[in-house]
Task: structure prediction
Amino acid sequence: MLMSRALANPDLISLAAGFVDQETLPADETRQALQSLFADPAAARAALQYGTTPGYPPLRQRLLDQALEGHPASCSRRAPTIDQVVLTAGSNQLLHLVLESIADAGDIILCAAPTYLVVLGTIANLGVRSVGVATDDQGMIPESLEATLTHLAATEELARVRAIYLVTYFDNPRGITMPLKRLAQVVEIAHRWSRGTKIYVIADEAYRDLRYRGDDVPSALTLDEDGDTVVVAGTFSKSYSPGVRVGWGILPAAIVGPVCSQKGNIDFGSPNFCQHLMHRVLDQGLFTAHVERMCAGYREKLHAMLQAMEEELAGFPGADWRSPDGGLYVWLGLPASIDSGPAGTLFDKAIEEGVLYVPGQYCYPSEGEPTKSNALRLSFGVQSAERIREGIAALARALQAQ
Ligand SMILES: Cc1ncc(COP(=O)(O)O)c(C=O)c1O
Result:
């Protein structure tokens, strides 16, 4: 629906899509990596052949080393092995495969409310229930998670809870990074409430490399003492190129078999060529330099968005937002009297003024924590700084008219 509104009006400034900036896509880096690959005909032929279902081993090993790098003391007692790393066509495929492997129709996935809207669609398509857990400025609230589990135990639905899904770095849609202490509490809760049925923690790390200030924090993987609870989902879509579409999962051993069996039946391996390409990109040091350049661009765009919001929206009663440390999104909260959804008046007015946003209500799970209709998601990824400023000014005009 959002996409068709955007296409119908090419002048519309879309602050909706969470796409990456076309101008920063790594054309030179990819050419260099391909040249080096094709300079070695045997390596090129290997890349042009089918691969294996879990994917190209050198890339899997590299991703595993990176995931555990720098945190040996806190690493799980049972550190994952390369057999637990599976490469997919983007992380959406990994999320789909994992959810399909662990949940049956009628089962429950607990999600931060709000959360990544596409995963909510994936959950619904599987006939699985998404149940929202309250969040604050640090992400999912452990006490609310505990209360939700207590409630589900009282209604004899605990055995249906299969996983807790979180976007752990600069989340989509709110831009929040969960502090490690809180993440550890969530992992502990999942562990403790796995009574009979295992409750996994799916840590979606899609935006981990898009950090504009502060230091990286360890992955949820390093908190998984027994190595049987945390699923990490990663992707090169945001940090390198969504067109190359290489994602990955680092999985507890128990679900590697089911995930690979599903994958074997679907495609017996994601594009081998793309995996070889990404390995070259990493191996030749092209990735790190690219990420630095790309983040510099996004940092400026984020600054432009926040500055424009300060200038245009600060006087608007009840409007509130926070500055994310990375990612692609700013979440704008509005007074309860304003409905930002497609049925409200703001959405159409904003389009009339020339700007498109994602209504916050799309990001809420279907049950649990009530849906809020007075918030919206703005993305600074695609538009230039100037268009971002114009978009925010258009949004301010639409808000003034409410
Ligand atoms: C939180 C989150 N996870 C996963 C993805 C999926 O990305 P891909 O399937 O391209 O790896 C996205 C894309 O927007 C996202 O925002």
